[in-house]
Every structure is written in structure tokens, then in C-alpha cells.
């Protein structure tokens, strides 16, 4: 690579790291300290300044919709199906969208939808609606 191409690649990597950090407000300084030791981005992370993060020239990041504070947190080692059923049982009568579970548990949409489909097929949950208006709730006999 030519010197200008290397410089451009380094600049792009630096911008990407800054973007990821700005979109991850939950990160702590301890997280960053750990990453500066054993990350492929150690050099970039170690050279960033607070001013660079605050004034990166990027557009303000849209806040991520927060997790639903009424739903229980996942327990270490607990099966996803059990966690989801605990969430439904903690909110009797409430109909939940898959997106609420995605945000609350930080999982991919398709993962949550697969588990919800399995729970509906096993008779533990009921489902109504299509696409984004689909809602799930605990089946009457569970």
C-alpha cells in the first residue's frame, strides 16, 4: 500500500472506533482499559482523547430505546425460553412485541422470534397480529 492509502486506512479505522464508542454509552472506563490491553484496536483506543470522542464531527447518535424496566433481567445460565416466559409471567395480561424483548435482552430479532415461535407452537404463548403489530401473551392454560 502507498503511504497515502495507509494513512487513509488508519483514519478510517480511527473514525470507526470513535463511532462505535459514541454509540455505546454504557461502556465504562474499565471496559476501555481492558480493550487497550488485548484488542486489535489497542493502538487506536490508547491514542484517543476525550475531546476527540466528544467532538468527532459526527452527527449526534440517536439514543437507543431502553430496555423495558418492568421486565426481569436474564439470569446467568438460564435458558432463553425460561427467561422469556419469566418476562411474560412478570407482566400478567400484558401483550408484548418481539421488539420489546429484543431491546430488553439485547438479542437479535430472529433469535427472539424463533423462541417465540417455539413457545407458541408448544402452547405456552398465544400470538395475534402480523409484522410489527404482532403481540404475544401467556396462553390461558399455562
Automatic annotation (TrEMBL):
- InterPro entries in the record: WH-like_DNA-bd_sf
Q: What is this protein called?
A: Uncharacterized protein
Organism lineage string: Bacteria, Pseudomonadati, Myxococcota, Polyangia, Nannocystales
Amino acid at each position: 500500500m502507498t503511504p497515502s492509502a495507509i494513512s487513509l486506512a488508519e483514519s478510517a479505522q480511527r473514525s470507526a472506533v470513535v463511532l462505535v464508542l459514541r454509540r455505546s454509552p454504557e461502556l465504562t472506563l474499565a471496559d476501555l482499559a481492558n480493550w487497550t490491553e488485548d484488542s486489535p484496536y489497542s493502538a487506536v483506543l490508547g491514542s484517543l482523547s476525550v475531546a476527540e470522542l466528544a467532538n468527532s464531527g459526527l452527527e449526534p447518535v440517536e439514543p437507543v430505546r431502553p430496555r423495558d424496566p418492568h421486565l426481569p433481567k436474564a439470569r446467568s445460565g438460564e435458558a432463553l425460553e425460561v427467561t422469556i416466559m419469566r418476562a411474560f409471567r412478570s407482566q400478567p395480561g400484558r401483550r408484548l412485541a418481539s421488539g420489546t424483548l429484543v431491546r430488553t435482552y439485547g438479542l437479535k430479532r430472529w433469535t427472539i422470534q424463533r423462541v417465540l415461535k417455539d413457545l407458541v407452537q408448544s402452547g405456552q404463548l398465544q400470538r395475534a397480529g402480523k409484522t410489527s403489530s404482532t403481540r404475544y401473551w401467556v396462553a390461558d392454560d399455562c
